[in-house]
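Lab notebook page, bench 4
Experiment: in silico fold of construct C2
Operator: M.H.
Input chain length: 307 residues
Purpose: comparison with the prior construct
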Amino acid sequence: MADCAALPDRRANRLLAVLLLVLVEAALVISWSAGFVGIRFAIDHAPIFLILLWRSLVSGLLLLPFALTIGPKIRLKDAAPQIVFGALAMSGYLAGFALAISHGVPTGLVALIADMLPLAVAILSWPVLGQALTARQWLGSFIGLAGVLIASGWSVDLGDVPLWAYGLPVLGTLSLALATLLQKRSPAGAMPVHQSLCIQCLSAAAIFALFAWHEGSVLPVLDPGFVGGILWLVFVATFGAWSLYYLALKKSSPARVTAILYLSPPVTMIWAWIMFSEALSWSMAGGLVVSLVGIVIVARAQKPGHV
């Protein structure tokens, strides 16, 4: 009788846990998309590298006290690889999609290309880790690429965006994929997240400072739009997105979390349509569906224990 009485309670707890997970995942998709939207908003108020400089610098400085006081002592031999990862994962990735947006590539399309990370990781696993792609991975990669070409066809035909600008988010995604693979090979990858993220943010800020100085200035713009954009990028797109990402990983499987992130491109497209009147098209929607099919094929073809 006691077991029967406890059954509704267990069902209620499971339902509550599922509801909480769904809410976390929904917030994750929204905050993950916020990075693309925040960049699109901020470029109306300041040069692109100045935005990236202050996003990275503020994030790193806010994390610094926690990185120095919580967790193991940071040693130079552990920090050095994180500086390299920051140059690739943050500088290369952020600069790639941010420059593309600043040159007029539709924000939703940039988000779609950036979400090709599983394909980029699969392709680079061969030269970096010696892991040859399976036939299903090659198939998924080609399907994913075809989806990007379909989605970008509308912009290429009707927009005045230079063709080379479409390659910028591709290079950024490849840079992040390379950092991901190198980090898995490095023993420094075991460093606590808040410490590694702090070092990577500060190293990226140093790189962005050089480009911002070349653009004209490293000083922040005393404009509400710039300040608001930086705060949005720091607290929503950086701290919010990554915190929710790791929370979702604790409550669910990596495969499910990765699949949930595939929803960020359509959310980004809707945000860009509402906030910036960026046009939607059937080709972008169709390309999105095709790309997601390719990504799912690659993800399911991944062998356990591999990247």
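Observations: Residues 20-301 form one domain. The chain has a mean pLDDT of 76.
Next step: discuss at group meeting.
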